[in-house]
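Budget justification note: compute hours in this period were largely spent on complex prediction jobs such as the one shown. Inputs:
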Amino acid sequence: MPFEDDCALAGDIEIVRVLVDRSWCTKNDDGTERPSSIAFLDSLNEVSCFILNETNLSLIADRFPDKKIAIVTVAAAREAGFIVARDPDGGGGIPGHVVLVQRSAPLESKQHVRLTRQLAKNGRVSGLSQAAQ
Amino acid sequence: MTPLTATPAFQHVDSVHAVKAATSELVPASLSDTAPWLYSALSQLHDLQDSGRNLIGVGDLRISERASTQVRTILSLINIKTLPTPVLYPLSGSGIGLKWTVGSREVEFTIFASAKTVVAKLEKGQLLDDCEFSEGTDAQSDLNGYLGWLVRL
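Corresponding output:
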């Protein structure tokens, strides 16, 4: 069944993406970290994420120890052409699971990658253990 | 079809070793002397193929065969002998990323599971140019144009 945008999710609601590879985050000029565009790409066009205020970061930290997370807002995701669809079964028991699905650009195109880069630039990075406390 | 080992990147590589380097086997250590960037890229590719898992809540990090073949094809088309070591990383959904960085310049390949590939040229994090890479007469010149820009002083 195709994913449907959940319009109840909007604005500054924050979305978490687990950064499982160190190349999924990069450094800004001022030394702070932000997610890389690659973090928000998925060949299946289903970027697996969690709604920050609905999920349990401790459960995520247990599953992915010592990893960082990227945080973006729902508004930024929508501006970059993604819908935010609920997918409660996709989190493997961790609540608040959603998928970002690109709907504006042709999949696997340079426009797709550009929009993902736009989203990543609006994100920030946090340590998962730190955020869970 | 031209064998992979007959392409520019392998011209300075011993042919016996090159055959092994073009497979999923461990890369021969002698490549580290003759083409260290290529040795590193093939080693990293091997490691990613070996370690890739389907992670619930993140995505499938197992590298698809088509993406893996595309990485090798790209590496084989490079005719610039002196390059820094690239970084390879998983792309969710069985794809792979490949990036070279020199100072503030980056050339980034995004290779999806289907093998569709987007190449981007960035400086100080800003996109300068990008294209969809497909095999053909222009592919090799596009690829080497981007990488030539990367290492040009």
